[in-house]
Design brief:
Blueprint lengths: L8 E2 L5 H26 L4 H29 L11 E2 L15 H24 L4 H28 L2 H33 L1 H11 L2 H26 L10 H20 L7 H26 L4 H24 L1
Parallel strand pairs: 1-2
Helix pairs in contact: 1-2, 1-3, 1-4, 2-4, 3-4, 5-7, 5-8, 5-9, 5-10, 6-7, 6-10, 7-8, 8-9, 9-10
Length: about 325
């Protein structure tokens, strides 16, 4: 059994006071989440930050109304009950995860927050046999639907098509700088620079296991080197290229994958079968690099293909000739 699951209350077992207390704590959590979304976006996306400021204010107003209702019906002492205390209640992701979320993902998370709350209260109201509880849940569902309408209105006020388009372009540019550029550099380095040692070893020894070990060592070593180099040479503060650790991770992982792609076939014992498969994988890798350059870096496809394929062919030829000699 999952730890803590047995101690959770079923929603159907909650009293009307506890349901109201649960709604209050849920509103408080959502206010904090929206405010932190706003702070996270304020520097780079001020218009979206204003949207989340408005949504936090709207949630806070509903929190005040719920507290007033609780005080009138049950007094000033509010029971401590939160989402995690109720089995089956919708959950919110930890707020610290927002630091890794893109602008579009944050918008989607906010939309899901409102939708989950609305749907939950609607379902709960339909399954409630107590008239007053059913009315309370229906009122909360209507409030959540109102929040969603407010979000649309706030977005229309602060995010006209030009502003939203500008923010989306900025978010896309940041994605390119933080993930695509370092990853592409790593893939190119891993795919091309390991060609010579792998195929030189292959043609010199005709031993597939030795070739695999050399390829794996070259790939992992290059990945570590590229990752640390990317992370260390630019902290991203002045260049705006984003977190150095994200860029280092992208570069290191893609470098390793680029080399391992044509090292793994040498796990096959038969030399020419392994070599043929490795050559096919190299061809696919090089064309994939050209496609990424064309799609994300807007490099003309033919020029990208010529550069990558020509460079890869020269490195491959050098490794094969050195190994054969």
């Amino acid at each position: 059994m999952i730890p803590g699951l047995a101690s959770r209350r079923r929603f159907s077992d909650l009293s009307e006071q506890e349901i109201l207390a649960l709604a209050i704590s849920s509103e408080e959590d959502d206010v904090r989440i929206y405010r932190q979304y706003a702070e996270r976006l304020r520097a780079d996306y001020p218009a979206s930050a204003q949207v989340f400021d408005g949504m936090a204010a709207e949630e806070n107003e509903h929190r005040h109304r719920l507290i007033d209702t609780h005080t009138e019906r049950f007094g000033p002492v509010i029971p401590l009950i939160r989402r995690e205390h109720v089995a089956g209640f919708y959950a919110r992701k930890p707020v610290w995860l927002m630091h890794n979320l893109s602008l579009e993902r944050i918008r989607a998370e906010a939309e899901a927050m409102e939708r989950d709350a609305h749907n939950f209260y609607i379902t709960a109201a339909q399954h409630s046999s107590d008239a007053s509880t059913r009315k309370l849940l229906g009122d909360l569902a209507a409030a959540e639907a109102g929040h969603a309408a407010t979000a649309v209105q706030l977005s229309a006020t602060h995010l006209d098509p030009d502003v939203k388009g500008e923010e989306d372009r900025a978010a896309h540019r940041q994605f390119i700088l933080t993930w695509v550029q370092p990853g592409l550099a790593g893939l190119m380095d891993g795919s091309v620079s390991t060609l010579a040692p792998i195929f030189a070893t292959a043609f010199a020894t005709h031993n597939t296991w030795t070739t695999f070990l050399v390829g794996a060592a070259a790939s992992v070593g290059a990945g570590i080197s590229m990752g640390f180099t990317e992370a260390a040479h630019d902290d991203g503060v002045l260049s705006g290229r984003g977190s150095p650790w994200k860029r280092g991770l992208a570069s290191g992982v893609m470098t390793t994958l680029g080399g391992m792609g044509h090292a793994l076939p040498y796990l096959i014992p038969e030399f020419w079968t392994a070599t043929t498969i490795a050559m096919v994988i190299v061809f696919i890798e090089l064309w994939a690099i050209a496609w990424i350059q064309n799609k994300f870096m807007e490099t003309p496809f033919l020029r990208a293909a010529l550069q990558v394929v020509l460079g890869g062919a020269l490195v491959f030829a050098a490794g094969a000739l050195i190994g054969a000699g």
